[in-house]
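I'll show a record.
***
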Amino acid sequence: MVIISKLKACLAILFLTTPALIVYFSYMLDIRGDSYRKYSDSVLNRPYQRFEEFDDDDDTDFEEYEGLVEKDPFEYAQLERRFQETTTEAPNLSTRPHSQRRYLLPVLKIWGGGNNVEFQSFKTVVMLAMYLNRTVVLTPFYDHGGHSREGYSAETLRHFKDTFDIEKLSRIVPVATVEEYLEDCPVIEHMLFWNTTYWRYTTDLHRENLGIEIPRLEDLAKTGQHSWRQLVKYNQELRCVGFYDPHRFRADVPQYQAYQKIIDEHLVRSTWVKQITDVARADICEGRPYLALHFRNKTGEGCHFFLDVRGSECEALIPTISYVADIVTVIVVDYMQKFRLDCLYVAHPLWSYEIVDHLAAKIPRRNIYTSADISAEKHPELELFKEDMYFLSLLEQEICARSSAFIGCGRSNWSIFVWKERLAAGRVASYLLKQMPGIPKELQAHL
């Protein structure tokens, strides 16, 4: 009887102390930063933030972003007014003297996703710079993503000025070139990070291509110069701050949604890309209004790049891939009728070209346009865009952004970038396949 009583007492103690032990060891072992524990579930589960995950398959309430102004008009209007007043006085915030600049350097993790993961990561850097009143360093991007797995090098480097409109961005946040940053910042004083994967490869890349020295991880761990809490506390004293892998950023930034909408309004493609799109538009639907579809079959993507190791698995998936294309075709036809549009532009990666054949079974082929219909022979200025997949991608995003209605892939950051951009501009005819009625739940993982 005594033994049984002692056993019960031990079990009771174990039951009561286990949660505390779990929390304690999670805290001790968590390498993502000491501030991670304080984030509430409401912050971590914000739909707009969670959906920036590269392969987030969770069900998401997409209406939160669409209804931002209606749901909380005061929050958005207050923040918007702040930046309108600032930009009225100084249209270009980058005129700030060097001595007054406090930098935030994006350190985009290699192998962390494609170009649009890089773009979404940069948006996070802009948000933090706005919140902390810092100058964003315009580091380049790398041509890596859906069409290519060639990696990161000087050959795949693409300059910021060729990608986004610097003048437009400067209306909401001060910016600086890499050269300006290096003049003022021989060393990084604080390196914010939540994730450390590929650290050595990423630091080697920055040293070789940009001349930027990233601190050693072991040195940061010893000094604690990496936490969000310390950055906020010493923000005014720290001049040179790096931000590693912004895509995985998790922090409770006040007015998060309102910041995101303002950034979506001001991070727009470069004037050069817009001018080229004006030229290409003449070849699309003969100038008529059109619906744009971005179709990226994630299942097909895996088979395209890893067929040698997934051959039998991919063969078994062919009927599913075909069924997905048929479902998408029905939805596209329905929405073209809904908006009284008779012309369609389809943006798709190389391995998803068969979607055009499925669509042509329901829509006259002469009314379906792709990048193949944009003529470099007729418009020589388009030659670079036809040859370089990075710039072709930007061109097609601009084409989709200008469409009368847009349908994108919910698991693609390419689509999500355009979707957010359109909603921020008030183009409400913008949809993601994953959220649309008619898509069976078992197929949502493919879209």
